[in-house]
Amino acid sequence: MAEPQEVSSEAGTPVRGRGTPPLLLILLLLCSVASLVVSTLTLLTRPRAEAAASGQGTRPAATHPRERHDLGEFLVNLADPDGNGYVKATLVLEYEGGKPAAKGGHGGAEAVPEWEAPVRDAVVSVLSACRREELRQESGKSALKKRLLARINGVVGKGGPQFVAVYFTSFAMQ
User: What angle do helix axes 138-156 and 116-128 make, rounded to 10 degrees?
Assistant: First the structure.
C-alpha cells in the first residue's frame, strides 16, 4: 500500500494536508457535551412537570385537617392468669373531622375534648383484656392498635371525630 505523499513548498519544507484546527475541535466537543446535558435534564424533568400539570403523582388533599391528641399515660392490669402483669403505655390519637381542642384557659392549659373520657375508658377496657404474651410481639401491638381504633370509633360514634391512627409513645410491661 502506498504511503500518502507530502507536497513540498517552495522553501523546501514538506507541507502536510490542512487538518481541522484544535480550537475548532474543542469548541465542537463543548457544544456536544452541552447539548447532551440539556437533553438529559429535559428528559428527566419532563415526567414530573407533566404529572404535576395533570394532577398525577401528588397526594390528594385531605377532606378534613388531621389533629393529634395526647391521651397521656395508662397503667392497666393485664388479663394474665397470675394477675401480676401490667402495662404502662402513653397514647396519642390522630383524628379528622372533629373540632380541635381549645387552647388557653387558666394557666394556659388546654381544654379537654368532650370525647376524651369515653375514649380513655375504652382504652382501659381493651388494654385490660390483653395478655402479656400477645403484647410481647410486634404483631400483638399492631393488633392492639386495630382493636383500639375500632373500639374508640365505636364509642365516639357519628357525632365525634373519625380516629385514623393510634400511636404508642411509650410502652412497658411487667
Answer: 140
Contact 135, 144 (CB under 8 A): yes
For the stretch 127-171, pLDDT in tens is: 999 999 999 999 999 999 999 999 999 999 887 899 999 999 999
Residue 171 CB: number of other CB atoms within 10 A? Answer: 14
SS3 107: helix
CA-CA distances (angstroms) from residue 57 to 17, 41, 63, 65, 151?
59, 19, 18, 21, 34
Phi-psi region of 105 (alpha: psi -120 to 50; beta: other; left: phi over 0): left
Cβ neighbors of 166 (< 8 A, separation 6 or more) are 91, 92, 93, 94, 145, 148, 149, 152
Answer positive or negative: Cα dihedral of 155, 157, 161, 166.
positive
Are 166 and 153 in contact, with CB atoms under 8 Å apart? no
pLDDT digits (tens, 9 = 90+) for 102-123: 554 555 556 788 899 999 999 9
Give CA–CA dist 117/162, Å, rounded. Answer: 16
Cα 97 to Cα 27: distance, rounded to the nearest angstrom: 63
